[in-house]
Structures are given as C-alpha cells and as structure tokens.
Amino acid sequence: HEVIHASGQYNFQGLRIPLETHLNIPAWRDALEHYNDNRIVDFLEFGWPIGYNLQTLPSSSRRNHTTAKTYSDAVDRYINKEVDFRATRGPFHTPPFGTNFIASPLQTVPKGSEGPPPWLASEPQMLLPSSTRLTVTTV
Fold first, then answer.
1. Alpha-carbon gap, residue 110 to 56, rounded angstroms
2. Dihedral through CA 89, CA 93, CA 98, CA 103, nearest 10?
3. Strands 135-138 and 102-105
4. Which three-class secondary structure state does DSSP give residue 117?
5. What is the pLDDT of residue 119?
6. Alpha-carbon torsion, ordered 47, 53, 57, 59, to 10 deg
7. Which long-range contacts (CB under 8 A, 24 or more apart) does 94-99 make?
8. Which residues of the chain have pLDDT under 70?
C-alpha cells in the first residue's frame, strides 16, 4: 500500500502491481477484448480507483450500529466467510494503511419487512458503507 500511495497514482494507472486473486485474469481479458469498457479487467487485476473528493475528511467510527450487535452471530459468520474467500482482511488492532484510514460501522437489516422468503436463511443483510475514501469495517 505504501509504495502505491507514494507513487501518487492509482495502481491500475501507475505501478500496476497485480492483486492476489483467484480470478483467471487472462480469461477475463480474452472474454472482454471487444467490450466497450474493457478496462474493467485492469480493475480486476490491479484494483479499483477508490477516491474521496471532499475537503473535509470523514471521521472513523469506533462503534458498530446496534443491529450489528443484535445479529452478532450473523456478523461473525459474514466476516469469517469474507476472510475465508480472501475478500477482506483483518481484524486490525491498529490502522494498517497509515493515517488515511477510515473505519466505518457495520450495520444489519432483516431481509424483508415480513421476514425472509423460505429459500433464504434468516440471516440479516449486511450494510457496508463505501462512501468514504477507504472503508474498513470494524467489529
């Protein structure tokens, strides 16, 4: 992260250090060769450009929403699944990316106002805010 940040460019534009992924990037490139927005493959290989454009920086949250605590078992299962898939990292006890780190609270909502359909488990849906420069969830 430090090397890419120091370059002053998004990874897909500058250093182009491949992400660790289970995706077959050559197959994606081949399949999307004639697609009008095929730079999506660069995002898959080198990461999406995530930015924050306001002058006032957001503040981190050290507390999750009450619903994340209400459904804490579901939150644990969700986080464990994401870590197993290597889709997220953590937990972090100190910010892993230096000072440009914003922690957003976890939140859950029940699926449907009358309960979930029978084919869905009673797991609540996770709400993961992504409107900040860098979002890392905390539990």
1. 33
2. 70
3. parallel
4. coil
5. 46
6. -50
7. 96/1, 96/136, 97/1, 97/5, 97/134, 98/1, 98/2, 98/5
8. 51-55, 57-58, 97-101, 111-123, 128-139
